[in-house]
Amino acid sequence: MKIIRTSNYDEMSKMAAQILEEDIINNPQITLGLATGSTPTGLYSELIKKYNEGKISFEKIKTVNLDEYVGISPDNKQSYNYFMKENLFNKIDIKEENTYIPNGLVENLEQECQRYNEIINDMPNRVQLLGIGSNGHIGFNEPADSFQEGTNVVDLKQSTIKDNSKKYFDGDENSIPKKAISMGIDQIMSADKIVLIASGKNKSKAIYDAICEDVSPNCPASIIKQHPNVTIIVDEEAAQLLPKDI
Ligand code: PGA
């Protein structure tokens, strides 16, 4: 496990973008496993900049996102489908048919999970980008008694509802969906490489637990320690509980 400490959000974003740029240059047909939320927006802006400067192209790249809320349409501004278009896809040369995100509006959620499992299974050479929840979730795999296998429908924990309603639903906990579809932990771990980014002091406990505590489904991110190729990029605030020698 490689841990990169950066001094702030911008530096974290630039470092992550540099790693993805190298991966894209080394393999222009790579699959990017993508994340949503406030953490990766700076990284996506950096990637757009690199695309505009002609350093990278997404023409042959496929993307597969971690998760989506249940019950909101892909056109809804609060959906992760919309987020990805606004923050990345509409600003680069990626082909829409090469981008995959669960559809939270389907009637048969089980079938949608199955469809997504097949999509992920068919995608080799994946670099998986992750954020981390303040409760240690990755994707929407919340703390639980066991690690979630396969794409699954998740009941969001109160801490996630609180965090995300504050950021995206005007603090209105009633309007945020209470369920989501998420790529499973085993599918995250099946990526060839994992890059986790974290910024801000509200992530410091989750980062400490993920890196320093034993692997446990109570902190889903702790499992990535078992992956052979993982890089964690933290800013100073997210790293504030880590021992100095890490
Ligand atoms: P955030 O979410 O980037 O909005 O903090 C991260 C996550 O919940 O995985």
Structure description:
The chain has helices at 9-26, 41-52, 80-87, 109-121, 158-168, 185-189, 204-212; strands at residues 2-6, 31-34, 62-65, 67-69, 99-100, 126-130, 152-155, 179-182, 193-198, 230-235. The protein has 246 residues and is of the alpha/beta class. The strands form two sheets. A seven-stranded parallel sheet has the order 1-10-9-6-2-3-5, with helices on both faces. A three-stranded antiparallel sheet has the order 4-8-7, covered by helices on one side. The chain binds 2-phosphoglycolic acid (PGA). 2-phosphoglycolic acid is lined by residues 37-39, 131-133, 167.
Summary tags:
about 250 residues, alpha/beta, 3-stranded antiparallel beta sheet, 7 helices
Largest sheet, in brief, is: 7 strands, parallel
Q: How many beta-strand elements?
A: 10
Fraction of residues in H or I helices: 25-40%
Helical segment count: 7
User: Kindly state the mean pLDDT as a whole number?
Assistant: 97
Ends distance: 11 Å
Question: Which ligands accompany this protein?
Answer: 2-phosphoglycolic acid
List the strand order in the largest sheet. 1-10-9-6-2-3-5
Element-by-element helix/strand order: EHEHEEHEHEEHEHEHE
What structural class do helix, strand and pairing data support? alpha/beta
Give the uncertain stretches in residue-range form: none
Coarse morphology = globular
Rg on CA atoms, Å? 17 Å
Strand content: 15-25%
Short description:
The chain has 246 residues and is α/β, with parallel strands linked by helices. It is built from 7 helices and 10 strands. Helix 1 crosses helix 2.
